[in-house]
Amino acid sequence: MGIGSRLFYGFWKLCFTFVFRVIFRTRLVGRERIPREGGLLLVCNHISFADPPMLGAATTRPVEFMAMVELFRHPVLRALMRGVGTFPVDRSRVDHAAAGEAIRRLKAGRCVAIFPEGGIRLAKQSVLGGDPVLKPGAEAIALLSNATILPVIIRDSRKPYVARNWFRRETMSVTFGRPFCLLKLKAHHDKDVYAQTLREQLLKTVELN
């Protein structure tokens, strides 16, 4: 991020920190496990539109999000998204340009967040449901960038959808799991093992709460 983007990001992070720590209460678990430097890929479950700002407010490093391309079609929203370092991904196909951009940023030592469920997921076939169906891509991005992966679990972020909750200091939570690197696995070049490892680490992070 440039200086202007960092200032813009800092302003919005302050605003969302106020929302999620003062108006609501956000319980943070494992934040000390966030690596302080180096390329870091946050891999998070997705249960509401509040997840990205909530994750950004909870993380000690600036987070740059891979977000669905539909959000970039409105010029004002597009400017806001790009202003905080967010970049688009087309979920209807294998988006090599988005993957390449994520790899470039991670190689530069930045922190990028991905929601591998491919959208908001609440049913059994979600991370919190216990039987997640994850979109491919996060493993390849981590491998090609040599980035550390940090699994993250968000709970109760749908509470801001209910108006009365804004006056009751409802509690939500963000749990940071244990960082790991796919390149250190013994089973090199086995994409199924990489995908299964990512899935298992997300499910293990659910249990840390």
Secondary structure elements and their pairing?
Layout: H1 3-23, E1 25-29, E2 40-44, H2 51-58, E3 64-68, H3 75-83, E4 87-89, H4 96-107, E5 111-114, H5 138-145, E6 148-155, E7 171-176, H6 191-206
Structure description:
This protein is an alpha/beta fold and 209 residues long. It contains six helices and seven strands. Strands 1-7-6-2-5-3-4 form a seven-stranded mixed beta sheet, sandwiched between helices. α3 (75-83) links the parallel β3 (64-68) and β4. The two termini are 32 Å apart.
Question: What's the short version?
Answer:
By secondary structure, the protein is an alpha/beta fold.
Q: How many extended strands?
A: 7
Mean pLDDT: 93
Spatial arrangement of strands, main beta sheet: 1-7-6-2-5-3-4
Radius of gyration in whole Å, from Cα?
16 Å
Provide the helix percentage. 25-40%
